[in-house]
User: Fold these one by one.
Assistant:
Number 1:
Amino acid sequence: MRVTQGMLTSNMLRNLSNSYSQMGKYQEQLYTGKKISQPSDDPVVAMKGINYRSQLSEVQQYKRNIGTVHNWTDNSDAALDKATQAMQRIRELTVQASNGTYEDGQRANIAKEIRQLKEHLGTIANTKVNDKYIFNGANTTEAPVDLTDYTVDSTQTPVQIEVSAGVKIQVNVNPQPVFSQKLFEDIEAFADALEGDGSDEELSDYLGTFDQHIDNIVNERADLGARMNRVELIEGRIEAQEVSATKMMSENEDADIEKVITNLKTQESIHRAALAVGSRIIQPTLMDFLR
């Protein structure tokens, strides 16, 4: 086979072009920090990257959902705490009013405070967070308690938020045991008894009634606390999954910078050697001697 000067020159130029391409690839990896810049560079890495990113996006969405759960449960717990304090104050006033030493005027003053506490409980039941009523189930646009006559909406649909694959947590508190219509009726009846001719025994009978209402609040708060503890456990597992997914995605896509620098330096040396060899291949022609 006859090898001409043109063939040698063509091969040299093609090899130099390949060398430039390799250096460009390594420079791109250093600039982006990624193994590939387009799917055609390595389809396997690209496909795995899509899967890892989908997994990471799903985990991050669960983290946002858990943030919403914390917002609901924390505000609900704070509201139930205030409701418990209000009911304990009503109980204290009940004990005071039933000891037989208060006059009619003093009982009337207690009745006024009792009604203020009833109104306070109504506003707690109508607590809004982010412009949503948190004690009316999925119907977050309407107040659960009508403060004009203290009627209570009794048709709440639980609010459930997905915090993990196939796992949903109820974030709202059932208002019926806590802010029932009977609660407001009992408080109003006690205020009427204070303003009327209620005997000390009749007034003291309300202690058991109010204790039951306090127990209802405590029980709902305990149930809420149990759900909050479960959410914290799930949150820890989700954070671990996020770390794992991020690590897998990094190992799949991120370039080994030390290795890339070494490869680039090696390719530069090879390129310089190719240029030196190329200068020897392009030999002087007859025209160079005719000048």
Number 2:
Amino acid sequence: MKENKFTLVECPRDAMQGWKNFISTGDKIKYLNALLRVGFDVLDCGSFVSAKAIPQMADTAEVISNLDLQDAVTKLLVIVANERGAEEAVKFEDISYLGFPFSISPSFQMRNTNSSLEESFERVKSIQALCEANGKQLVIYLSMGFGNPYGDPYSEDILLYWASKITDLGIRIISLADTVGVATPAQISSALQSLIPVYPQVEFGVHLHADALNWKPKLEAALAAGCHRFDSAIKGIGGCPMAQDELVGNMDTEKMVGFFEEKKIAISIDPKALQNCSEMAVHIFQ
């Protein structure tokens, strides 16, 4: 992990996955190709999961096959929920990262991947082996990373326990996901400060869900705690449809980029390309 390198992860997959109207494959391809011109470090572009569970992502393979990656600095990430999805994903040479949602809330893990934490950890082992054999890198999303709405136990000791087991597998990117937007700035700060000093070899990120009132304090807390990896989605669209009926929006990319610019943090984003994608999003997410 480079000490001063900030990693910006744009998440159109998270924006699209819970959208009630099916977004055409052609529109997805156009939008993602436009996003590839912005200069994000990583594009969370799709998922190889059950089409029954997430019908919006059923065309991920076709979409990825039609992306124009020539001259793009952006690397592709896809979400998988089991070995079958991982086996499909590693066939694509252009995919650099596989992301697996590992919830430290047993209730949410069952809702999201129909498995217990112990079963899910065995999946992580298998998927990590697939990644290592195929030149991919596994990103673990610790979902419900700041608490949960189900009454399941939550503590920093639980975070540290699972982080230890995950890093023991050689996994070097872990992102804490505020899956339903319950995190306070104090919780974000405390969680990151408990993990980052203990695992200097790991790149810790945040996948924060926020609204117009609390996005900035959450972002400030993560930055002050030493986080250098940030997920977001243009216009803050999206949320996890497996967590609850009402979607809590993602961190707003335009606001986040403006925040980093105010802080004089160097990020390689093309403002005209970003504005173009923002205008496209208005039409795509109708």
Number 3:
Amino acid sequence: MKGYTHLVWDFNGTLYNDVSESIESANDLLEAHALPLIRSVEDYRALFGFPIVDYYRRLGFDFEKTPYAELAVEWVAYYLERSKKATLYPDVPDVLARVKQAGISQLILSATERGMLERQVELLGIRPYFDGLLGLDNIHAHSKEEIGRRWRQKHPDARVLLIGDTEHDAEVAAAIGADCILVSCGHRPHEALLACPVLAVAHSLTEALGERGFAGNFL
């Protein structure tokens, strides 16, 4: 795989197909605060982005009325219930197995709170594929760049490919000196991701890492 020693995965929207559940959770929150609902996946993908606090502003929340910290707690409660029915994307187990077979270390780097991430990965049955799970120490989803930088300081010689589904993943990849492929099956639209300085923007993991995919010849 182009000499890569590590593949760093984003989780939500990249491995974990929780787009519908994220929309439902956001609408639960919007309804509770008498704000207009998200009407479609397209509208959601156009609104979503990092930092999450700005996404909440785009949804219409006024932090003088309800602080972001309180809204984050509310959203997590809705999400924990809604996400019980979320699943991996269908091609994830095969892709993870092929990367592991190639002898490449796999990590998850996520803006999800660390304990929540651990529980989700365990329940999905994919924990054995990963040598580490890197998540935040809070539920506010501000940025995972600092976690990535700390990991990179401990692994200065690692040759890294990062795969994610948002512009923030491209920013994190640049910050840690990693190559990056983005997939548009998740939380951001394909057209927006094309503006990122990455190796490729794929519609799925199979397109990104399959035998005929952008990086398939490296597996």
